[in-house]
Amino acid sequence: MARVFKARMILYAAYGHCIIREDGSHYEHPHWFELAKEKKTSIGKITMEYELENSFDSREQMLKSMQDNWQVMQESIQRGIANKDKSLSGLTGGDAIKLYAYKDNSYTGNTVMTVAASAVGVSEVNAVMGRIVACPTAGSCGIVPAAIKTAAEKNHSTEEEIVEALFTAAGIGLVIEANASIAGAYGGCQAECGTAAGMAAAAMVQLAGGTPDQVGTAVALAIKNLLGLACDPVAGLVEVPCVKRNGFVAVHSMVAADMALAGVESVIPVDEVIDAMDRIGRSLPRAVKETAEGGLATTQTGRKISERVFGK
Ligand code: SF4
Question: Where are the domains of the chain?
Fold first, then answer.
């Protein structure tokens, strides 16, 4: 179990009382992209207003919560890229530091490898019970911080802009949770890493000064290419394939953001992509919904690891 920091706004997007009624039904969520265009503002600002209307916090408290989240995200990256600790199972730990040391010799280049190392690092911190921000979940916790840190550095973003980008990411998480799912046990890994990819891509576009349409395109592109992704963690632990997958998906989100910023469009609009995500999630077999009864978990090696870790 990860010790998850109080990722308030993002968890609101995930499970919070602002979108789920006591009877379990969802509140109607605003049509974020249309609203942002109509009001000539950003998805981040729309999300902030939505949160203000639906939480008991003042604006200052809400902003402070998100600043605290960003602080924890940065600390988890710093710890992650220097991490030599192995997880209790021994399956993960020590890879982020290798990636970070190797980045200058890589095919993909310094920026891509820094994103990958950072995302893997945060995931490793999660695997050793360190403090992370679940965004949207602990299993996918490396993607958003790695992407935002890279984009913020490239764009020389202010703290205020970073917080707005975090709200952008949270808003995307909120929309996906309300219309599909952010739980691997419900929708497969597309729901966790796929959602995180959409959140990260959206935040990156926001930090580059992209339009709400470009944010929507980045989300659509990021999610489209992860639809149907299996959740098949070896031995049921959030380590394999999760930790390295965070590295891959963080890079994936960066490509989606770049495509959108370059003017590439998604043939399928973002709302329809999220609807497809919901339908695919529902139709995935139980074996690849975090049960460890299929996929990588049931390979010969996966089974041996499970026996070694749990004696069964
Ligand atoms: S494989 Fe499953 S447990 Fe791992 S990150 Fe994806 S959804 Fe979470």
Answer: 8-310
